[in-house]
Every structure is written in structure tokens, then in C-alpha cells.
Design a protein that fits this description.
The protein has 462 residues and is an alpha/beta fold. It contains 17 helices and 16 strands. The strands form four sheets. A five-stranded parallel sheet has the order 3-2-1-4-16, with helices on both faces. Strands 6-14-7-8-9 form a five-stranded parallel sheet. Strands 10, 11, 12 and 13 form a four-stranded antiparallel sheet that branches. The mean pLDDT is 94.
Length: 462
């Protein structure tokens, strides 16, 4: 008999010795017995704070109850009703600051492992060939979606449930947005991504790949051809520090490094024809999830030393604690309170090191974290042959420069109202395109909200 509120069932993982040699998934998933035991710990709160704090308001309590009863099929249907990609979201969402973070059991560090349970039911459904089914009453209106990332995925699914004809225009050769190009296989296996995305075509969503809006088709053409439009173009353009040496060979943005790794399969070179040059001493600048991903990829490419370079401390890091712990287990070295001044190279133009300055924490800044302040005279050099800048991303101007009628902020995010409509009637936006760098689950929430707003807008016109 499982004790309600008892000790959390820890998910099994690959050993460090095995996982640093390949890109296979680190978490091994729950067995049916493990998932049932974990679900039976749930105290079934009356007010379900986990559901309130979930951006897509998934019926978490009901899902967990079904798992605890061994009804995995019903649990999957419950999860899928509000979350079109539970296998993906269950693996990469920051549950510790959302659903799991408000679980009463989390107060003693034993919150219900909600993300792992959602991933379990989705994996179980795939293994047993169980798929969500729903009846669609077709409507004549057409809706265009720009981008097939998480915001576009949830918007497309809900719009099809409303009955609209949906076409997604995706710039890359593979749909999925950041789930394809940004997150490594050891966190999010791509066969799983492809499987969950196949649901879109099964329910009648038309996905047009290699279609860059503003190049292959004009933004204005979409506005004329479709009754409404949703923009989910993400934030795929890298930010740089603007320090000397950034143009040296061996310096990457995290975007390029991860796209080459994840989307172009550099780790399978020469089977795949996009190589990557990764040295033996690698420095990754930043301390978010993207930094951890890039650092852990570098380790798998064979780097002897991988250093995280962060101007604050681990306490202020925006990365998930789970990701930091995995990085440290794999031998990644985390340096606190240091900041790059310049990148150093040799006469052939290759990186040889990086000059850093030690920092101290000062007063709180606008982010709610202590501001890092340089310590005069503390400069030193760290020898490196590869540098990866992972200090954040911003919306890509490639689309925005071709849609000048759209109002944007000074950060190049798209302005929207409370219903996610832009300044152009019938045009909506969500996800990182309006937020800057955010999370998969927040983008899913935006997509659902936009679909509801689009339905209200088109229903009033019909």
C-alpha cells in the first residue's frame, strides 16, 4: 500500500559513464508500477493549485487519479485534452516553478512528479497505439499560422477542434520550432517530437515547410488569402555580448551550436553532412537551460573540459535545478561570479582563451536579482579553444522586416492586446514572438488563448 503524501518515486536515469558518450535520453521513464505508485501519493487537493498554476490549465488532478487507478488510457485522454504535446511538455517544462512548485507536498521537497507522469501517459499511449479522437464540424474559414513551434502547435490543434481550416507556414525543413532545433535529444528525443507532431496532419492541419514568410510568400498575401492569422515565429535570433574577439573561429552562438547539433545532426557526421568543430576546452557563457544544453552537448562531442562562465551565482541561475545537476554530474565545471571581457585568438584566427573579470553581487536590479559588479584589478585569462555564447535570444528580424505594418516593442517583440490581437485586425501573436525567451508551456498557453480569441473573432463575422 502506497502512503498518501509519502516519498517521491524517483525516475531511473542512464549512468553518467554511459550518457556522456551519446545523445540518448537521460531519463528512462516510469514503469507502470512506478507511475502508479507516484500517482497514489497525491492527496487530491480540493482546490488543485497545480491546475491553477498550469499555463494550459491541464486537468492534472483527474489525470493523476486515473493513473493511480491504473487507467492509463483515460489519463492520456485527460492530459491530451488541454495539452497537445504532453510527452514533450512533461519532459521540458519547468514544473518545479509551476504545477509541482505549488503542490502542498513540495513544501518538504516531495511534490508529485507531475511532469514525469504526463510524459509517462503519453509514452504509454504511443506504445499501445492509443490516440485522441474527436469529431470536427468543418467550417469554411481559413486560418494561417506562421511558425510551427509550441505556440503554433496548440493554436492549430484548438482551431481544428473549432472546425477551421488551418495552414502552417514553417521556415525550416522540419516542423516543431524550438523542440526540434533548440533542445538536445538527451532531454527531448526527436522521434518523440516527430510522433507528437504527426497528430497535426492526422487531424487535417496543412503544414507547409521551407516557407519563409516575407520571402517565399509575402505577409500581405496571407492577410488577403486567409480569414485570420496567428504569428508564432519565436525568438530564434541570438544575442551577443559585443566584446572583442567574437568573430574568431571557434566562437559560436548557442543557437548555431544547438541547431547544428539537434536539427542538422552534427553528432552523426559524416552520416549527416553538417559538421561541427568542438575543441577540448570549451567555455559556455551564461547559466540558463540553453547554456546547460550547449555545455552538455560539448561534453558529448568529446571535450575534456567544459566550463560554465556565469556572472552571478548558481542561486541566481535561470536554469532548472535538474539541468544544473545533470550538467555537474557529467563533469561540467560551474564558475560563479566571473564575466568575459574579451575573447583571445592566435594569428590563424582561432580561439585560444578568454579574459575574465571577477564579480561581486550588488543591489537588486530590474530582474529581481542582485546586480553583478566588476572587481577592479581582478582580471585573469582562462585557456579555451571553443566559446559558446548562451546569453539569450530575441525575435528574428527576417520576418519583422517584411511585416513593417506590425507594431513591435523596443525589444522587437510583437505588441498584442489582452486577447493576443496585434494592431492589425484579425492578426494574432503568441509565444516567444511576444514574450522574448520564455518556456514551451507558456507558448502552449498563448496558442490556446489565441485560438479562442480567433474563434470569437471569426464567429462574430459569420
Amino acid at each position: 500500500m502506497v502512503e498518501i503524501g509519502g516519498k517521491r518515486t524517483i525516475m531511473r536515469e542512464r549512468s553518467v559513464e554511459e550518457r556522456i558518450k551519446n545523445f540518448h535520453s537521460v531519463p528512462l521513464g516510469y514503469s507502470e508500477d512506478e507511475a502508479t505508485r507516484e500517482a497514489q501519493r497525491c492527496i487530491q487537493c480540493f482546490n488543485a493549485p497545480c491546475e491553477i498554476n498550469c499555463p494550459v490549465h491541464m486537468k492534472i488532478k483527474a489525470m493523476i487519479r486515473a493513473i493511480s487507478d491504473g487507467d492509463f488510457k483515460e489519463a492520456f485522454f485527460i492530459a491530451k485534452r488541454d495539452n497537445p504535446i504532453p510527452a514533450m511538455a512533461g519532459r521540458v517544462c519547468p514544473q518545479e516553478i509551476q504545477c509541482e512548485g505549488v503542490c502542498p507536498l513540495a513544501q518538504r521537497g516531495q511534490g508529485i512528479n507531475i511532469g514525469k507522469l504526463a510524459a509517462f501517459v503519453a509514452d504509454w499511449a504511443r506504445e499501445h497505439e492509443v490516440k485522441e479522437e474527436f469529431h470536427i464540424e468543418e467550417r469554411p474559414e481559413k486560418v494561417a499560422l506562421i511558425g510551427s513551434g509550441p505556440a503554433g502547435i496548440s493554436c492549430a490543434v484548438d482551431l481544428r477542434k473549432y472546425g477551421y481550416r488551418v495552414t502552417i507556414f514553417e521556415a525550416l525543413h522540419t516542423p516543431g520550432g524550438v523542440t526540434q532545433y533548440g533542445i538536445p535529444d538527451f532531454r527531448l528525443p526527436k522521434d518523440l517530437v516527430d510522433y507528437e507532431l504527426s497528430f497535426l496532419t492526422e487531424i487535417g492541419v496543412d503544414i507547409q515547410i521551407n516557407m519563409v514568410v516575407g520571402q517565399n510568400i509575402e505577409f500581405g498575401e496571407l492577410l488577403e488569402a486567409f480569414d485570420a492569422t496567428f504569428i508564432g515565429t519565436g525568438a530564434g535570433a541570438p544575442k551577443f555580448m559585443g566584446i572583442p574577439g567574437e568573430k574568431l573561429k571557434g566562437v559560436y552562438s548557442a543557437n548555431e551550436f544547438l541547431i547544428r547539433t539537434n536539427l542538422m545532426k552534427s553528432y552523426h557526421f559524416p552520416k549527416y553532412d553538417t559538421p561541427i568543430v568542438c575543441g577540448t576546452k570549451v567555455g559556455a557563457i551564461g547559466a540558463g537551460n540553453v547554456t546547460m544544453d550547449a555545455a552538455r552537448c560539448a561534453k558529448r562531442f568529446g571535450a575534456d573540459e567544459v566550463h560554465i562562465i556565469y556572472r552571478r551565482t548558481r542561486k541566481e541561475s535561470p536554469a532548472r535545478e535538474e539541468e544544473i545537476e545533470h550538467a555537474l554530474e557529467e563533469g561540467i565545471i560551474f564558475h560563479e561570479l566571473i564575466n568575459p571581457i574579451r575573447i583571445i585568438g592566435n594569428e590563424d584566427g582561432w580561439v585560444t582563451g578568454i579574459e575574465l573579470v571577477r564579480m561581486k553581487l550588488g543591489e537588486m536590479d530590474n530582474s529581481g536579482r542582485p546586480r553583478p559588479v566588476p572587481i577592479i584589478g581582478s582580471e585573469f585569462v582562462m585557456e579555451l579553444d571553443t566559446v559558446i555564447e548562451a546569453i539569450g535570444t530575441q525575435p528574428n528580424r527576417l520576418f519583422l522586416n517584411k511585416a513593417l505594418e506590425l507594431e513591435t516593442t523596443r525589444w522587437d517583440t510583437i505588441k498584442v492586446d489582452d486577447h493576443l490581437m496585434t494592431n492589425i485586425e484579425g492578426v494574432y501573436a503568441g509565444g516567444d514572438a511576444i514574450r522574448g525567451t520564455a518556456t514551451v508551456i507558456l507558448a502552449l498557453g498563448d496558442g490556446r488563448k489565441a485560438a479562442k480569441s480567433i474563434n470569437q473573432y471569426l464567429s462574430k463575422r459569420s
